UniProtKB/TrEMBL annotation:
This is Uncharacterized protein. PANTHER family: UPF0545 PROTEIN C22ORF39. InterPro entries: Pants/Emi1-like. Pfam families: PANTS-like. It comes from Agaricus bisporus var. burnettii (strain JB137-S8 / ATCC MYA-4627 / FGSC 10392) (White button mushroom).
Amino acid sequence: MPQLNPQTVFEQERDRLRKLHPTPTEIPSCLSLFDDYISSASVVIRSQIKSLYRFGHRPECSPKFEEFKFCLSLKSLHPEERREVWIQRRAEWWARKRLDKSSEDVWDIRTEPLQAFPKPITDEMFE
């Protein structure tokens, strides 16, 4: 697996997020982030049971609460500044996630398709 440059990964994520969220109205609102936190928190029993069933432990809600607090701290900024700061934070998060170990580490990205795969079916195979 090729070694990734952290700065390059960050720039790729920042560019991707800028395309994905071209205007300030595209970034999540504080209300939607608060809803995410509440849906993860202990007040919603359904999410607790689903997490226990799927992962064997209760969901970790503190990152969602941190996102909500971060959103509140951006309220005094101009909308375009708020978008840039949010994109910067999310790009850093995605870059860390890409650089950390994952189940995808065992795969190399194929740049060319395999030759003669799948093998063409011929009459000789049936003889």
